[in-house]
Structure to design on (224 residues):
């Protein structure tokens, strides 16, 4: 199995630019989660979807962040405009049961 | 200068010894408690879970103990191996399609 696929693996961008992170969940998993990991705040849940529908986006830090899941095999997390404090590793995870989530390799975002 | 980040607790054990990693959780409404392992440069990986109506569960070389009275969770790893070196996170969830709330993590170092 391919596992959860994320792209790009690394992204370096300048402040003010739009950033789009992509995720392909494991086939057959009906829940998808976006997390952010920083040294300051650890692992934080940003938003999650069930059957392609956003369930809880209370973890999204600001209106600059948005996420979509147009179909069962694809999701995006967009930051517009990006700021240096958005620098982090962003993980996508998918699951059948929420307690057993399968994480992708992450996208390391650096905003200069 | 750099921001002050999380100072992860570190547990150093001799190869072959048993390891015990502890975690305090906060949400009494959580129904599942889970341990994840994160190796450097990778996403978190599911190890084992325990439901709130249990106090002990065993897996391969791992045992999770749950004490709801004091809101404490522990992970025991038997006969620790070099491949066990990683950061270990406890997490909790209400189950269903809910996301995970992660603890701060413990860095396990295996001494040869």
């Amino acid at each position: 199995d391919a596992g959860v696929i994320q792209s790009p693996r690394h992204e370096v961008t300048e402040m003010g630019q739009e950033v789009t992170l992509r995720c392909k969940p494991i086939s057959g998993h009906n829940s998808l989660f976006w997390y952010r990991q920083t040294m300051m705040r650890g692992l934080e849940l940003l938003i999650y979807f069930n059957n392609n529908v956003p369930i809880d986006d209370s973890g999204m830090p600001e209106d600059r962040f948005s996420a979509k899941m147009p179909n069962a095999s694809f999701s995006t997390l967009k930051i517009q405009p990006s700021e240096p404090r958005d620098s982090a590793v962003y993980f996508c995870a998918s699951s059948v049961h929420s307690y057993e989530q399968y994480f992708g390799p992450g996208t390391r975002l650096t905003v200069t | 200068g750099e921001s002050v980040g999380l100072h992860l607790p570190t547990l150093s054990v001799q190869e072959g010894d048993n390891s015990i990693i502890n975690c305090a959780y906060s949400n009494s409404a959580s129904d599942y408690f889970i341990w994840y392992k994160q190796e450097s440069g990778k996403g978190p990986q599911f190890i084992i879970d325990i439901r709130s109506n249990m106090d002990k569960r065993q897996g391969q070389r791992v045992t999770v103990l749950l004490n709801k009275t004091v809101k404490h969770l522990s992970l025991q790893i038997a006969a620790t191996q070099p491949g066990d070196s990683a950061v270990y996170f406890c997490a909790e969830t209400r189950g269903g399609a809910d996301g995970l709330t992660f603890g701060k993590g413990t860095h396990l170092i295996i001494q040869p």
Notes: The CA atoms of residues 52 and 88 of chain B lie 20 Å apart.
